[in-house]
């Protein structure tokens, strides 16, 4: 019995290795093969079902299977005949094999943890390319039987680092929105305290890169919004400290026409900066830029209107100068603009389809150095007189209540017109002698063709003409 007891103990100890060695010792070949098959199935299942994720289930399962083999080996060895071999030899072999398996298991289980630690160190240093390699080694399927939490931690670290690498790849292609989104996901994954402490600074840097890109190629509003987001989202950072200088650079880069004195393009350059004050109320950065643009706009707007007038771009000149008067009603230049708008209207009419206004008729004398022009209205429509030359201005003559339309607008004088003995409305304009452009039109009836002419008014001469309306049937 003693022999059988030592034989059972030896078989149990050999089976405790998990290798079925006790069955080989007992020459139970079928049992050995069966144990190997079951063990192999358990190992494959553990590898395939992520055993490290539910370690206690698998530890319990393997422990039960191992206990089953130990008990079966002890039972089979104890019930058989006493062995002839020295009892201590198989016992020693079993103990040695078990010690070897335990030592291997301890070393095997420590492998993922070591790889994880190397990955975490690289991750914390911001070297995610190296960290991913270590995490891959730690989370490899072959390590599932360690039942170590290091595998899940490695998988989590690997996922975080892959997010960083994807974001950096996007940044390398100039896809700043994609890179910023990636880093935002990375920070959110760790509730704002990621393994890599430099991630937030890198995100701020990407925002600054994006803003710089927009400053070079995007709209003023888009660039400003990107810079403002840095100041608001990363207060105290180096990137936020750089924003004021970047905004100065944005203004200078986008107002080159203003710096060059190219007035009309300068107006277009300034408008986006003016709009910032409305888009970003109570934002001192926006108000500063809008203020700078607002200070520069009056001179640019005025000069642009005058440039357009001199270049005979009359419609653009009128629009610009009227905007100036609307924005700056108290500006001292509005008197000059009033005259310019009259000159623009005269030039616009003179360059279009008009009637020819004949030279004025001398009718007497006027004080030296001046000329007077009397306009008599022999029509049922009020007349407006516009003139520009040494002086610019307008005049009006009321409608003649007892007059009728005859037959082409303001043709001058006629045997039948201006002869009736009625009191006609008149106006007299006193001007310095010189060359003038005159327009006479009916502001109340746009269907009547305006008349345009260039008059040479002589010093000391009084002029007088009577105008009537004729209807043309040609």
Rg from C-alpha positions? 50 Å
* Unreliable segments of 5+ consecutive residues: 409-415
Question: Total strand count, please?
Answer: 9
Helix content: 55-70%
How far apart are the first and last residues' alpha carbons, in Å?
146 Å
Structural class: alpha+beta
Shape label:
rod-shaped
Largest sheet: 5 strands, mixed
Number of helices: 16
Provide the succession of SSEs.
HHHHHHHHHHHHHHHHEEEEEEEEE
Q: How confident is the prediction overall: mean pLDDT?
A: 82
- Write out the strand line-up for the largest beta sheet, numbering strands in chain order: 1-8-7-4-5
Report the portion of residues in β strands. Answer: 5-15%
Write up this protein.
By secondary structure, this protein is an alpha+beta fold. A five-stranded mixed β-sheet has the order 1-8-7-4-5, covered by helices on one side. β4 (383-388) and β5 (392-397) form a beta hairpin. It is built from 16 helices and nine strands. It has helices at 2-15, 21-25, 29-48, 55-79, 88-124, 128-138, 150-172, 176-189, 199-217, 220-233, 238-254, 256-260, 263-279, 284-310, 314-327, 334-350; strands at 355-356, 362-365, 370-377, 383-388, 392-397, 426-432, 434-441, 451-457, 461-467.
């Amino acid at each position: 019995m003693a022999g059988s007891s030592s034989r059972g103990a030896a078989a149990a100890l050999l089976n405790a290795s998990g290798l079925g060695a006790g069955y080989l010792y007992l020459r139970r070949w079928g049992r050995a093969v069966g144990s190997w098959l079951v063990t192999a199935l358990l190992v494959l299942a553990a590898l395939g079902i992520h055993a490290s994720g539910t370690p206690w289930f698998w530890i319990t399962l393997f422990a039960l299977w191992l206990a089953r083999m130990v008990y079966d080996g002890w039972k089979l060895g104890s019930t058989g005949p006493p062995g002839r071999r020295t009892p201590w030899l198989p016992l020693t072999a079993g103990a040695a094999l078990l010690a070897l398996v335990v030592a291997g298991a301890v070393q095997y289980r420590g492998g993922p943890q070591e790889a994880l630690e190397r990955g975490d160190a690289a991750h914390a240093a911001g070297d995610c390319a190296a960290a991913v390699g270590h995490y891959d080694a730690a989370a490899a399927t072959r390590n599932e039987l360690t039942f170590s939490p290091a595998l899940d931690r490695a998988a989590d670290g690997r996922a975080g680092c892959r997010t960083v690498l994807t974001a950096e790849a996007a940044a390398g292609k100039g896809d700043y929105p994609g890179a910023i989104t990636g880093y935002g996901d990375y920070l959110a994954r760790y509730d704002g305290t990621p393994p890599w402490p430099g991630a937030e600074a890198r995100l701020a840097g990407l925002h600054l890169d994006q803003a710089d890109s927009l400053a070079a190629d995007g709209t003023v509003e888009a660039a400003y919004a990107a810079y403002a987001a840095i100041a608001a989202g990363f207060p105290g950072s180096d990137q936020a400290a750089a924003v004021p200088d970047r905004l100065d650079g944005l203004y200078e880069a986008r107002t080159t026409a203003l710096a060059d004195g190219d007035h009309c393009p300068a107006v277009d350059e300034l408008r986006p900066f003016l709009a910032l004050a409305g888009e970003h109320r109570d934002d001192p950065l926006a108000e500063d830029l809008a203020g700078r643009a607002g200070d520069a706009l009056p001179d640019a707007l005025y000069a642009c209107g005058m440039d357009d007038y001199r270049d005979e771009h009359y419609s653009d000149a009128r629009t610009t100068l009227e905007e100036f008067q609307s924005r700056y009603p108290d500006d001292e230049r509005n008197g000059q603009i009033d005259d310019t708008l009259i000159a623009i209207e005269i030039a616009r009419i003179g360059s279009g389809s008009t009637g020819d206004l004949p030279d004025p008729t001398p009718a007497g004398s006027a004080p030296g150095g001046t000329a007077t022009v009397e306009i008599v209205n022999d029509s049922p429509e009020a007349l407006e007189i516009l003139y520009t030359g040494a002086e610019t201005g307008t005049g009006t003559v009321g409608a003649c209540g007892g007059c009728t339309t005859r037959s082409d607008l303001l043709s001058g004088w006629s045997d039948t017109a201006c002869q009736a003995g009625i009191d006609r409305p008149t106006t007299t304009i006193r001007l310095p002698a010189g060359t003038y452009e005159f327009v006479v039109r009916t502001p109340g009836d746009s269907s009547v063709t305006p008349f345009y002419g260039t008059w040479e008014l002589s010093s000391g001469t009084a002029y007088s003409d009577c105008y009537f309306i004729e209807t043309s049937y040609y």
